[in-house]
Amino acid sequence: MLLEDHHLSLIEWTELPRGIRLGTGGSVRVSERGEDGPLVRVSLAVQGEGQIVLELPLGDAAGYWNPGLSGGRGLPADWAGRDAFSAVRSAPIGALYDADGSSRLAFGFDCLVHEGELQYGVSEEEKTFVVRLPIEGRLAELESGLDLVVVGEAMPYARAIRAVSEAVRADLPVRPASSASREPVYSTWYAHSQRISEQVIEADVAVAAELGCRSVFIDDGWQRFGDGRWYAGCGDWVPDPVKFPDLAALSGRLHAQGLDVVLWIAPLLLGEQSEAFDRLHRFAPHYSEALRTRVLDPRHPEVRASLIETCARLVRDYDLDGLKIDFLNSAMVYAGEPSTGDIADVGEAMTLLLRGVADAVDLERPGALIEFRQPYVSPAVASYADVVRADDCPADAVQNRRSILDLRLLANGQIVHADPIMWDPTAPSDAPVRQLFGAFFGVPQISMPLVSLPAAHRAEVAAVLRVWRELRDVLLDGEITAGLPIDGYQTAAARLGDTLLVVAYGASILDLDLDGVRRLVVLNASGSGQLAYRSSASTPATAGLTVLTGEARGVESISVELTAQGFLPVPPWSIAELAIG
Q: Pick from 389, 393, 422: which is nearest to 408 by CA?
């Protein structure tokens, strides 16, 4: 009951565009307001605890988007919508959108580092949508105050989210994208779990290179005590002498095949089996039952120094091209707890740690890849990783698609990677295609035992990856639009120059904005052989349709008339290209 339970009678209200009201209370006041194109910027003075409230009419609202892993994207009641944030967990950004895909409210706060919680939802009593940010803890100590950005004009929700995300980043630098970040990946994780070795990897990568992968992500299991699925052995970060007797030499052999090498590490985890345990355990009071290991508290300078040196040592000693840094959000177990280190706030400590890691890795290998993953997606730490990956969703092509598109809306400069792709090797050859199509708007990571993969599966994977690599610039650099988040993004598109790529993930109608388009690429990620479309073209156009993947690839192209509406004859689970004359 956000409008009933928080002393709103004491709030001062400021009217913003589009019927949005901004309320401030306690020791928070509006100090300045201005406009920056479609954005309204409000500076808020903070002199202690208080609250900030946004309220607007519901209108035809269909759902609410936020960058956290919140599950459903509907309209929660105001007593239910919650999204905790910090530097390594979500971000204070949100968007309420209408059923037609337009943004009703898109906003962001620039308090990206410190711990906080956005509360939001539908007011049953007032028939409005409410967002509340309590100003307490470290947020109440922000002497410089904080800024709020609100989109003041009607625009598609995806464009509004990007505008807000870019605005709250302000002058934060963007980490340059490594060459490896833009190439398909062979990942060992779902392929072999911890049962990896030099021999297993070298056998698979020979196939991976043929399929179109250009890097190898050696995941959990390479390290000493890296067995048993859990993390009681983490902490030393040295290779298992049986599985990897000479990891540096393996890197050299993989480099000779034209492959970059990226190594997994979970630096905050400290297992009792490790030699580092005696030295560091006093800085790791929390034991995680789920992970079966302790979690280091980054608020101690000793922890930060040790982890920075560890990451630099790995890159240096094993000739690595990058690091996949996992479980950073585990630090949030210390949120709100008193600190015995030199920093009180977990988000502040993690920002300092990750800046140190990025700087140290760059000294050892300029242009190295650093990968983070959901839920540590805040713009506050985007400067320290060039890759952000979808959260774990083994064999769930739908969730992979949702997570990737969520990240594409939020990310500024980072390259989005899919969660590693796996499927049943005994399934029909449509199975790998479905997984790849779900990952198409991110960089694919293939994670299957490739040596034993059926030839039909290999052929389909190679064909799809060949098209993906040819369209890489459109997919990674083009403007992204998508269907409604609440529907799981049933359609999505990327546009760069005169090339438009569209995907149908279900029975939704494709909206084709063909103004200036000379090349139209259509992915049919459905079981239908006829895709309904609406076109913006003022006059009919003739296009030659060629199927690029699937059973019909290589068949002679056919002529298609593109009119105001109609159906595209694209075979199920295939990619077609239309050259528009």
A: 389
For a pLDDT cut of 70, what percent of the chain falls above it? 98
Query: How many residues can be counted in the chain?
Result: 581
Look at residues 119, 101, 116 and name the one whose alpha carbon lies nearest to residue 160. 101
Q: Cβ atoms within 10 A of the Cβ of 424, count?
A: 11
State pLDDT tens for residues 401-446: 999 999 999 987 899 999 999 999 999 999 999 999 999 999 999 9
pLDDT value at position 554? 74
Strands 146-151, 103-109: pairing kind: antiparallel
Number of alpha helices (DSSP H) and beta strands (DSSP E) in the chain: 11, 31
C-alpha to C-alpha distance for 33 and 149, rounded to whole angstroms? 10
Residue 218, strand partner residues: 263
Burial of 37 (0-12, 13-18, 19+ CB in 10 A): exposed
CA atoms within 13 A on the CB side of 307: 32
Residue 513 in contact with residue 479, Cβ under 8 Å?
no
CA 143 distance to own-chain centroid = 31
Q: Which burial class, exposed, middle or buried, applies to 9 when counting CB atoms under 10 A from its CB (0-12, 13-18, 19+)? A: exposed
Question: Residue 559 and residue 569: Cα distance in Å, rounded?
Answer: 10
What are the C-alpha distances in Å from 493 to residues 161, 347, 405, 432, 478?
16, 35, 10, 21, 9
DSSP secondary structure, 244-302, as one string:
-TTHHHHHHHHHHTT-EEEEEE-TTEE-TTSTTHHHHGGG--EEETTTTEEE--TTSHH
- Cβ-count burial of 67 within 10 angstroms (0-12 exposed, 13-18 middle, 19+ buried)? buried
Q: Under the phi-then-psi rule, with left for phi > 0, alpha for psi from -120 to 50, and beta for the rest, what region is 496?
A: beta
CA 57 to chain centre: 30
Using DSSP, state whether 333 is helix, strand or coil: helix
Instruction: Confirm if 510 and 578 have CB atoms less than 8 A apart.
Output: no
Residue 331: which residues within 8 A CB-CB, separation 6 or more? Answer: 88, 268, 295, 296, 297, 298, 346, 349, 350
